[in-house]
Design brief:
Elements: E1 2-7, E2 10-13, E3 18-26, E4 31-39, E5 46-52, E6 57-59, E7 67-72, E8 77-82, E9 91-99, E10 104-106, E11 110-115
Parallel strand pairs: 2-11
Antiparallel strand pairs: 1-3, 3-8, 4-5, 4-9, 5-6, 7-8, 9-10, 9-11
Length: 116
């Protein structure tokens, strides 16, 4: 069982930056990929970025060149550095983790609001 705790959301002006953090606990060494997703009310949750245990990254087209996902194994934490933020980035952001045996864990979500 993996537990995820997100932090770092908040209010920022357009063009500004935020860094989201997701701290994992529990069966952390079973994790093979972690990612960030976002979801607006009534909308489908969409992928933002993922990072594998080997460090391979993947990004949604809408955030390429602006967001960067990274990890700190010593702290069991994954980060999402968000730069050049746009009002369209306003959403609840969720961290997730996938184990080698197919289990999926989700964080509680953290609100990101970008003002014009």
């Amino acid at each position: 069982q993996v537990q995820l705790v997100e932090s770092g959301g908040g209010l920022v002006q357009a063009g500004g930056s935020l860094r989201l953090s997701c701290a994992a606990s529990g069966s952390i060494f079973s994790i093979i990929v972690m990612g960030w997703y976002r979801q607006a009310p009534g909308k489908q949750r969409e992928l933002v970025a993922t990072i594998t245990s080997g460090g391979r990254t993947n990004y949604a087209d809408s955030v390429k060149g602006r967001f960067a996902i990274s990890r700190d194994n010593a702290k069991n934490t994954v980060y999402l550095q968000m730069n050049s933020l746009k009002p369209e980035d306003t959403d609840v952001y969720y961290c997730n983790a996938v184990s080698g045996y197919g289990k999926v864990a989700w964080g509680q979500g953290t609100q990101v609001t970008v003002s014009s």
